[in-house]
Predict the 3D structure of the following.
Amino acid sequence: MSFSETRETKARLNRSELAVPGSQSKFFEKALQSPADVIFLDLEDAVAPDQKNQARKNIIEALNDLDWSSKTVSVRINGLDTHWMYRDIIDVVEQAGQFIDLIMVPKVGTSSDVYALDMLVTQIENAKGFNNRIGFELIIETALGMQNLAQIAGASTRNESLHFGVADYAASTQARTTNIGGPNPNYVVLTDPLTQDAREVHWGDMWHYALSKMVVVARANGLRPIDGPFGDYSDAEGYKAAAYRASALGCEGKWAIHPSQIALANEVMSPSEEEIEKAKQIVAAMNSAEEEGKGAVSLDGKLIDFASIRQAEALLSKLA
Ligand code: GLV
Ligand code: MG
């Protein structure tokens, strides 16, 4: 290990994160009853420009009137390049800041974006004398944000998680797709002929590099990496496959843009019985190996060593 220590952010269950448009107050109670770990009330892209003010009012009212204590609650503000953002912060935090856990910041491009928000939120919290300290979840969804990822991740002690916003990322990088997440039939490898005339098409994951980079930077800074939306909510299998890919890379959760995706995210992002059992066996086998003065042993015909213990412990720590 490096002598530099990574400070882990506050631990929160973040397997599923439900998006709820702030303009649709009829969905707020339903969201509260849902099994989502985190709910974000949206002021940004799910709300039309002429609805922004009303959505802000709806959110402030609901935060004050409903009991959100069983959930982690976040509010997605508008981008720093819009004229709605300052009111999003000032009105929502001044009037309901004691009821929110997190602010979700879209299209973060530079560490200064985070610094500016931190300054504003700190002033409001101090002026109002709030006891809670609001955390930040940052959506990485522009080429600029991806370029400046490391500085952004380290820009504030309020930072808790990085989220991959695949739709805006595709727009920003001018990727040729109009889907929200998922595979792309143009992102394939055509094999050389395997036999006389047989060639195979192997689908690739065009989001692999971006998501993987985000996971690494999140972990290096002690933050939770969370995968963003999957637009085709009628495709449960496709959603699960995308969530499994994200979790295989290290993501702790995935957005649900439809209530039907909540249970899928919770299922995929929770370690299975088999994984837990295997991790426990690895820890036990390595403990016995250590007692016998060995650094590596075999378990079920495979080599395990002290790195295996760390892998197993990382998995078991998710149960705590
Ligand atoms: C989320 O905000 C996205 O753009 O995918
Ligand atoms: Mg977006």
Q: What stands out?
A: The pocket of magnesium ion (ligand 2) is lined by residues 45, 106, 139, 141, 165, 167-168 (CB under 6 Å).
